[in-house]
Each structure stands twice: as C-alpha cells, then as structure tokens.
Amino acid sequence: MQAGEMTPLRGELRVPGDKSIGHRSLMLGALADGIVEVSGLGTGEDNRATQALLEAMGVRIERSGTDARVHGVGLDGLRPPEGALDCGNSGTTMRLMLGILAGQPFEVTLIGDASLSRRPMRRVLDPLTRMGLTVLDAREGTFAPLRVRGRRPLSAIAYDSPIASAQIKSAVMLAGLFAEGETVVREPAPSRDHTERMLAWLGRPPRARPIRVPGDLSSAAFLMGAALLVPGSDITIAGVGTNPTRTGFLDVLDAMGASVERRAPREDNGEPSCDLVVRHRPLRGTTVGGELSVRAIDELPLVATLAAIAEGPTRIRDAEELRVKESDRIARTAQMLRSFGVPVDEHPDGMTIHGDPERALRAGRVDAHGDHRIAMCGTLMALIAPPGTRIEGGESIASSFPSFHASLEAVGARLPGGGDLE
Ligand code: S3P
Q1: Residue 201 sits in the same domain as residue 232
Q2: Domain residues for 357?
Q3: Does 396 sit in the ligand 1 pocket, CB within 6 Å?
Q4: The 3-state secondary structure of the chain, one letter per residue
Q5: Whose CA is nearest to atom 13 of ligand 1?
C-alpha cells in the first residue's frame, strides 16, 4: 500500500480509564471506611483481575459499565479467600496486592497466566519480607505461584529501591498502611506517582471519597501513533490523563517533531487530564534515555514503531526493564519490526531503530506472546504495510484496551485482513 492510498484518520474519541489509576482506586477504595464511588474505570481484564481478587476477600463491588461502587471494608476488614487468587496477566495486580496481603494475618496463594508466571517477584518480596511478610513458597524464589502469609502490625522500613518501579514503590507504600511508624521509599528515578496522589486524596487511613479515573495515556498513545503513521490524520482524544510522571511519550513526540496540542485541562482527585489533539507530521529520529525512559516506559515499543518511519536512527537506552514486562519487549519489538522489513539493533538496555520514511515495508508476522502492547504495535504497522500481516496473540489487547480495534475503525482506519489481526 502506498502512503497516498491510505485514508486519513479523523475524529474525536475517548479511551478507557487509566489502568494504573484503576487498580489503585479499587484497592484503596476497598481499604476505605465506606463506599467509594469510582467513575471512568477501565473495562480491561487487568482491572477486572484486581476487582475479582478484592471480591474474593469479601469486598462488595457493584459495577455498571465504567462506574464502580466499592464498599470499603477498612484496614481490618479483608477476609481470607477460599481458593488461589488469579492475577491473570496483570503484574500490577500481583505486586500491589502483595503489599496489601503483607498486612493480612492469613495465608494466600497468588497465581497468574504463563506470562505473569515468568515475571520476577523477588523485587517486591524482598522489601515486604523485611516488613514482616512470610514467603512460604515461590518458584525459584521469585516466580508465581506464590504462597505468602502476612501479619499485623508490619514493621515500617526506609527502603532504597534499586529499580525505578512504581510497582515496587506502591507495594511498599500499601504495606506501610499496616505498619507502625513511617515507611519511606527512595527510588533511583521518579516512577509514576499515582499511589502517592491517591493516598493524598483519600488520606491515611483511607476515607471514602469519590474517584474519577482519567483516560489512559498509555492507550491513547496507540491512537496517536496511528494518526502519526497515516498521512493527513487529525484526531482528538478527550479526557486523557497527563500526570507528569507518565508524559514521557509526549516529550519524545516533541523531540521527533510532532507536537501534541493540549486543550481543556482539568484535575480530579489530584490527577491532571486534558484533551489531546494530534495531527500527522513527518517524524525525525531521536534518543530516549535516563529519566525519560522511565516516564515513557510502557510507550517505548510504540516509540520504536514510530521510529521505523522517522528520518534517521532512534536510540532507546536505559530501558532494561522492558525485558521483564508482559514479554521481553526489546526482543519482541525488534522481531516485530524486522518482520516488516525495518532494521533494528538490539542492546541489553534498549535498541536502535534505523528509520526511513521512504522504505518499502512488507507484510509482517507478529507473535505478540501474550503482550498487549506488542500486538497493538503490530496492528499499527499493518495499517501502513502491504496486506497480509498476521498477528498471533491479538486477544491480549483485551487486558488494557478491549475497544482498540473499534476505536481505530471509529476514526476511519481500515484494518487490513479482517480476522488476520485477531
Ligand atoms: C505500573 C508501573 C510500571 C508499568 C506498568 C504499570 C503501575 O511498571 O510498566 O504497566 O501501575 O504501577 P514498573 O513499576 O514495574 O516499572
């Protein structure tokens, strides 16, 4: 397909609620002292997993679409679940819930899907053990299935995290709710601070106050990416979260020559949001590293995808954490882009993508390996590649953005091959 044959993407739309804020609204809502009304909650499987775990521990959650009424049970109200707690594909569910479980005086087994069962948990088990969690069982000391027993009260700690990770930080902070004294976490670079903002909003112990979840920038990014790949596009995504610890992708776009206009800013429960207007522009290569890599961590496979059609190379560094996400995202992104004919060099902590706006792409073969973000990147490449791309594992997109294909179609994207992309 030639660029000229593609229909520009046009229109205004919304994306599902922010996944990170959704997890925290359910967990902290469950620990609050009354009913917490949550609006704008994402309907993806990851947030559903968090909801199911809390329900299994006796929390009543009434769902109606994107609204939830969480009947908080207070800090002392969780009950031992009957069976194992299944976190599905969701690392945030498992790691943050471990922080809460550290403060529960009962034994619990946590399980996950094949991808989650390969992700390291020692990083949260270490500090939580120091606070008083007992790890009864963990495969190779770090992988799920995990069998743990908490206790009350926990010991407060000052923790110097070796990794800039909001999941580690949040697990320790949530355990800190059940500790005597002050718990402190220091991190090598600022990771997303949604837990801090929500605790500031609800207080300690958490009080019942309403929470409005903004649209997920990490989902919006894929629609923005589509508009930047398809010439002539001009789309607006309304009500997207713009917490500065999350907006690294917008800074990277700026450096690549595509400014995104921000309109109608607002703030709810300490979380800023606005409408984002993105218009197609030719892109140039850039370098992403240091703190910017942390602030754009979930969008780096997408940055690599956009870099494929940029002028000149793009270097992504200081991103070794990508290797322990839902898949090894350095290896998977490189393999995905190469299948479309884009040269990529892999590094231990990132990759170099050799961009060329004139390159003739070929149809790709993508194995998403249960990783929603790789599947979405492959789908975007399929929009600009000749017909025939095959994507395996596309069902993983439901973990964060079940309406992804429908959203692309709503702004006029023609998804090639129909069922091929599923
Ligand atoms: C998340 C933190 C990040 C991010 C993940 C969600 C969170 O992981 O990649 O998608 O909600 O706290 P790390 O904290 O492991 O970097």
Answers
A1: no
A2: 3-16+214-420
A3: no
A4: CCHHHCCCCEEEEECCECHHHHHHHHHHHHCCCCEEEEECCCCCHHHHHHHHHHHHCCCEEEEECCEEEEECCCCCCCCCCCCCEECCCCHHHHHHHHHHHCCCCCEEEEECCCCHHHCCCHHHHHHHHHHCCEEEEEECCCEEEEEEECCCCEECCEEECCCCCHHHHHHHHHHHCCEECCCEEECCCCCCCHHHHHHHHHCCCCCCCCEECCECHHHHHHHHHHHHHCCCCEEEEEEEECCCCCCHHHHHHHHHCCCCEEEEEEEECCEEEEEEEEECCCCECCEECHHHHHHCHHHHHHHHHHHCCCEEEEEECCCHHHHHCCCCHHHHHHHHHHHCCCCEEEECCEEEEEECCCCCCCCCEEECCCCHHHHHHHHHHHHHCCCCCEEECHHHHHHCCCCHHHHHHHCCCCCCCHHHHC
A5: 165
